[in-house]
Amino acid sequence: MASIFTKIIQGDIPAYKIAETADCIAFLDVNPNAKGHTLCVPKKEVDKITDLPQEEYLSLMSFSLKVAQAIEKSVSCKRVGFTVIGLEVPHVHVHLIPLNSMADANFSKKETLIPSEFETVAADIKAAYNS
Q1: Which residue(s) pair with 96 in the sheet?
Q2: What is the pLDDT, as a whole number, of residue 25?
Q3: Positions of the chain with pLDDT under 70
Q4: Total structural domains in the chain?
Q5: Catalytic one among 37, 91, 93, 95?
């Protein structure tokens, strides 16, 4: 059965997309730790990051770096944290979390955004990614 991320990649589920390449996609986390919390996902559905072939791993990390740099340009934060955790979705994904304190990296603290806020932050990050 396709993961929720595969359904997003296929366009079956809407998402606030940031960037996309032939191999990867980035979109806002709809249950974010902080405003601008973004997920970078390989289009190929693989459960664990350690199961990715090296070339695909390096492609995902390179893509994630570029998206993180766009987040830093468009979201007020001290830095962007990278984390690869989670058991909820059996599809590799890198969390890019704008950090102003270590509490922002705690997955029990969540930010509530309305759709227009998601749209604005997605547009701002996308513009920075494409510049």
Answers
A1: 38, 82
A2: 98
A3: none
A4: 1
A5: 93
